[in-house]
Amino acid sequence: xxxxxxxxxxxxxxxxxxxxxxxxxxxxxxxxxxxxxxxxxxxxxxxxxxxxxxxxxxxxxxxxxxxxxxxxxxxxxxxxxxxxxxxxxxxxxxxxxxxxxxxxxxxxxxxxxxxxxxxxxxxxxxxxxxxxxxxxxxxxxxxxxxxxxxxxxxxxxxxxxxxxxxxxxxxxxxxxxxxxxxxxxxxxxxxxxxxxxxxxxxxxxxxxxxxxxxxxxxxxxxxxxxxxxxxxxxxxxxxxxxxxxxxxxxxxxxxxxxxxxxxxxxxxxxxxxxxxxxxxxxxxxxxxxxxxxxxxxxxxxxxxxxxxxxxxxxxxxxxxxxxxxxxxxxxxxxxxxxxxxxxxxxxxxxxxxxxxxxxxxxxxxxxxxxxxxxxxxxxxxxxxxxxxxxxxxxxxxxxxxxxxxxxxxxxxxxxxxxxxxxxxxxxxxxxxxxxxxxxxxxxxxxxxxxxxxxxxxxxxxxxxxxxxxxxxxxxxxxxxxxxxxxxxxxxxxxxxxxxxxxxxxxxxxxxxxxxxxxxxxxxxxxxxxxxxxxxxxxxxxxxxxxxxxxxxxxxxxxxxx
Length: 561
Hints:
Mean pLDDT: 94
CATH class of the largest domain: Alpha Beta
Low-confidence stretches: none
Shape: globular
């Protein structure tokens, strides 16, 4: 059975193809269109998924969409009416898209794809829950989803058993952890739907104590895990900005993008981070004690907050956590497709996600052609020499562009579209931030570590293959690993096992033979404002336009002309 999953029209559009319960292809539309976090109909992602599966649209048995448009439209209309006439401008701008795309989605799918089969619309948070539970490999698990807003739900808890999922409690808009975090993100001068990770990084520099009471007045947490936002601090219903004058009375003037950082900014980020963690930990603890389950699945954009997820594992009786690698809306396409397969068609044979390398790959001949078009010297070598040369360059504190195999699905580069560096170098963080990524100097970098060696360096009790947990770096290792240890002593860890990425693992082993350290720095292969590179041509362009030292692409190593 072949099911096409689609997520689009809000942010992080994507498509996936599920064959007999196995996710065989998945990609975000931004990687093809080059528009970061695009909301467009994912026509290029769909074409890729069909090609990767070796099928045509006529062979697809079912299309699954990641939410219910009419239910969401009811919330949008309610928002406009509650604040009318202040919402006139946003109403005028949004209605054409609703009337020509979102409410006519079956016609759009038929027109764009020439598809005439069944289409199912799955509730947004049910898609999130499905995206985490079905690929988790857990026979039964507790489930938490948290994001900005779906149709009405912003937060949900439930359970999964076998092939069934039950959502037991929801919290509805406008009470939203995601909207709170995006409010502080935009107030600090970052972009919504992309800057939230920067807020998490900034929080490590601050103290939550200073604004703890002020944030408690905004986010009210009850003993049963329910929460609410104080509406007087927000104006996102009006569409102009997310905070109100009450917010600025409490926290001062908003930071402009080029303003210097102050203790106020650090402490505000830390206070909101702590508040989000408290909500997630309390709900996880209540759910664990109620169900007795030891496994937890997480999805929704808020669960990309790897610091909070690590603290859930540390602070509750759950002994294992699975977080959907594309936990935001991109993963909704996977969840919708898997829900149709398991719940609507009642297929019991679940297949755990083995890795997130679900995107396009390029042959040696295609890579060679790209290098020739760019007039770059081609230095081909066998695998042993190739890995030794890259490892030596890393040990010499050189920065490597690494383009191999199939592209990752989700926001994290996981070692196939990555920039690599030496975690033991005190200068490497600044080199990567200022010379390569052109981004804020406070932002940390992630290590990839051999899975069986991770506990030597990190307070980590489980594998972290998708870079979605940020445990503490062990105190006796922090001076050894200055480039990946954040100011708060954490690191966003990716573990590499024996099977998911053999070439990357061999590189780490080769680097260890030179440095004594079984890990390397991994950051996404892109410039600050661009999506991660998807093709050889894009990788070559990014390499030439930045101060990377080497490009390791396919079997070739390229130096700067």
